[in-house]
Write a structure and sequence with these properties.
- It is built from 4 helices and 6 strands.
- By secondary structure, the protein is an alpha+beta fold.
- The chain has 2 domains: 83 residues, 2-Layer Sandwich (Alpha-Beta Plaits); 30 residues, no CATH class.
- A 4-stranded antiparallel β-sheet has the order 1-2-4-3. A two-stranded antiparallel ribbon has the order 5-6.
- β5 and β6 form a beta hairpin.
- The longest helix is centred in the middle third of the chain and has 15 residues.
- The protein is elongated and about 60 Å long.
Length: 116
């Protein structure tokens, strides 16, 4: 789709993600921006204004040249949200052999600080 920005430039945008609500849309836009991808949200507040319309969910748009990279970033977010790979990321093993959840920064058994 073509969009004219505030500076009068024509931007070729592509919708790459439909969020469940405005909060998720803002979060995903932030993830994309952290990855260096400029993103906009369409229909951010439409769902709240018209709650019975199911198709009024916020959509994330990026420039066409960033669409592939943006989808990869979003795929990583969705995988983490669904718990894919979280078992590995949620644990660390101390040199003494004790395994801990990621939120702990020191071993309860020997007191060693988590590496990294």
């Amino acid at each position: 789709m073509k969009v004219i920005d505030l500076a009068g430039r024509i931007r070729h945008m592509e919708r790459i993600f439909t969020a469940k609500d405005a909060l998720e849309a803002a979060f995903v836009r932030g993830i994309l921006r952290d990855a260096g991808i400029d993103a906009t949200v369409e229909g951010e507040f439409l769902r709240e204004a018209i709650p019975l319309v199911g198709s009024a969910l916020p959509q994330i748009c990026v420039e066409e040249v960033d669409a592939l990279r943006g989808r990869k970033v979003i795929d990583e977010y969705v995988a983490k949200r669904q718990g894919v790979g979280s078992a590995q990321e949620a644990k660390w093993r101390c040199a003494c052999g004790e395994e801990h959840d990621v939120q702990f920064s020191a071993c309860w058994k020997c007191g060693a600080v988590r590496p990294g």
